[in-house]
Amino acid sequence: MRAAPAATAVSHFTLDNGLEVVVIPDQRTPVVTHMLWYKVGSADETPGKSGIAHFLEHLMFKGTAKNPAGRFSQTVATIGGQENAFTSTDYTGYFQRTSHEYLKTLMEFEADRMTGLVLTDANVIPERSVILEERNMRVDNDPGARLGEQVTAALYLNHPYHHPTLGWRHEMETLNREDALAFYGRFYAPNNAVLVVAGDVTADEVKTLAEETYGKVERRGVFGPRVRPQEPEPIAPRQVTFADPRVTQPNLQRSYLAPSYTRAKRGEAEALDVLAHVLGATSNSRLYRALVVDKKLATSAGAWYSGTALDMSRFGVYATAAPGVPLVKLEAALDEVIAAFLDQDPTGEEVERAKSRMIADYIYAQDNQGTLARLYGAALTTGQTVEDVIERPARLRAVTAEAVREVAKQYLDKRRSVTGYLVKDIKDVAAREEKRAL
Amino acid sequence: MMLMRTALAAAFALALTASAHAASKIEPIVSPGGIKAWLVREPSVPMIAMDFSFAGGANADPADKLGVGNMVSSLLDEGAGELSARAFQERLEERAIQLTFASGRDQFRGSLLTLGDNLDEAATLLRLALTAPRFDEEPVERIRAQVLAALRRATTSPTDIANERWWATAFPDHPYGRSNNGTLESVPQIRVEDLKAYVGRVFARGSLTIAIVGDIDADRAGRLIDRVFGGLPAKASLPVVPDAVMHGLGTRVTVELDVPQTVIDFGGPGLARHDPDFFTAYVVNHILGAGTHTSRLYREVREVRGLAYSMRTNLIWLDHAAVLTGGTATRSDRAKETLAVIEDVIKRLAEDGPTQDELDKAKSYLKGAYAIAFDTSSKIAGQLVQIQLDDLGIDYPERRGAMIDAVTLVDAKRVAKSLLDKGLLVTVVGRTQGLNKTN
After folding, report:
1. Residues 39-98 (A) with a CB less than 8 A from some CB of B
2. pLDDT in tens, A183-236
3. Nearest to A124 by CA among A177, A65, A172, A184
4. For residue B312, what are the domain limits?
5. What confidence tens digit (pLDDT) does each residue in B83-101 have?
6. Residues B288, B144 share a domain
7. What ipTM, to 2 d.p.?
8. In whole angstroms, what is the distance from residue A67 CA to residue A115 CA?
9. Could you tell me if residue B11 is inside a domain?
10. Which residues on chain A are in Cβ contact (under 8 Å) with B146?
11. pTM of the full structure
């Protein structure tokens, strides 16, 4: 398999004011992807202000002294560009994609709103209603998403990853202009940001343009290591159950506390990625084969690993019960699959298939400059380096079957986990547990 | 979880768009076996994307076996030829070959993504999937259980209910009014013979459309095409589907569901793809609700009043009907207000038309967006299939800009009036008190 071509040509440098810049050349189309990432997310919020990172992201479109509300978006729209923004636990990003001759215009606008944001109650209050509707749509209207929030909150006993990025509703309802501006003043600065540009541009061009635009923004404050309260060593399995009359097919999801690429010992995170693949990424995975194909206890089953995070992250497994199958029975079968996995190394073929697929994904990613830009932006705002991204396919290649079983033994320990049940009626679970106890 | 500021647009809403840059290099090719395709050579990344479409889709489902095409789409990679489901999946995975199939309303679509080094294996597996699917009992029952689980879930999902009620009311006696995925009643009735019969009727060279993008030349592409599709019968046997007239204008359908947020779908007739006013309607729709951060509905419903997070409209053209639909979701106690705002925005656009400034900006956006919206080989291949299905011609990407430029304010006002002045069919799902009236 050939190596990823573009990755080796990536440039990385820092402006005098502390802004990090990554340039990813892609000469195939006359298009440029311009992304500004801030090293701040919902895990950096002050207690009681959950959701403010995401709320501020929405408010960043309300205009500056120099460019009143709508001008930036309208300019991007008029030149046929795309734009959007996103917030996670660890980062907040803004991006546009346009024809490459507009790169400097994008940089001027984005540099301006790094410090020039103007907010009024007239535009803050309706936008607060928008994020509450966003919460309604993504979470409150969806029983599975509501359970997911409860599982996350139960998993993180001490780390701020326990609260949703959207925020808890009762706190979102109180967020205001002052909260947003305080958060903005504290975290939005060139020396707390990463600029990623992908497209038909050279590193020299980007450097010149960035110096003429972002370079004029003064460095502010000192951003030391991002230290958040960490998790104690987990000692007790936790179980949460959420009942909603709209549930038609009970399901279960379990999250284990597991290290991210940034927190893992060398090679561990890559092994966790392979583990997630072997255990549950495809219809040939262990969980799918055992629970869906062979035992017919579930209609779906799988596993995932979330490796991109600054602090302790998660490894997850899930299954949806086949009609009439109680969740306790499904969970017992799931536990058997995991126990069997811990007993014996996965086969060479299983590990090779997983690695081939994941390494191919890095090559497929070369076809999409937006995907590449996100890969680098997310890495650099969660404590990884450009070299880490470039070397990842080789490090995945080096993962052994022993290493996969080793991380499984270490991290798929029920004491590190929360298991969530989604049911139609709370009595369903209680009755069955009683029956089992007899 | 990562939260996006605005919901991503539905894929079909942008179905007009392809990379003009890539499109400028489209080569029409004919395989040695006589099968036509469009090819874009893109040697810089060692991969190949192929998209293809057979006429049929859900329209080819027998009326008493709805959802056959959908089940076929999930079962083609679950065992074929000598390979069991497990062996087939392993072969795909070993070489990281991605095969996907989907049964739409009018077409059965498929796509292949592979590294160039694995093209032969990819062709072998895709040929087997299309010409010798096994439909063994185990995968059939497993996929049936998954389809039924999804159908059951849809019975309590406000977005699914609103969508299903809208189409069922708009096209009551037509395949467009039925579910692509079948129903809780029809899916248990589907037998292996039905699946095999669907494949035999629908997969044929005569109703096949292909586009290939990637590190591959015309010779190799021709051999790939013959290898994959050469063994299919020449002609499909498809039911005659009549053109459909949209029903239900002026009707409001409400479904009570105890959820905090009320889902509203609305819409009326659209314009056929070959209607001379199509591009004018496309521009009007952009101004009304398709412009992601700039449309009138976005501004009035979301930005000014904070009534919703997602708010957009889509112009949809099918083989036998065209509609303009829109949707939003709003807190229950303000659903009535939201609907009133939407109706008022539509009424004003119908009566007064867009302004010159709105028209200029919309045209500028729609022209510029063409170059950038579709940036990956897979997306370009998908768009090239769509351009062929819409019968727009291989030079369409070069002509498109002029077609948008030709839209005048007089046209836009006239089409806004005819498009938006017919009343709406509205479906509302949630706590619907105060909304149970037919207007």
Report:
1. 54, 57-58, 61, 73-74, 77-88, 97-98
2. 999 999 999 999 999 998 999 999 999 999 999 999 999 999 999 999 999 999
3. A177
4. 252-430
5. 999 999 999 999 999 999 9
6. no
7. 0.92
8. 12
9. no
10. 299-300
11. 0.93
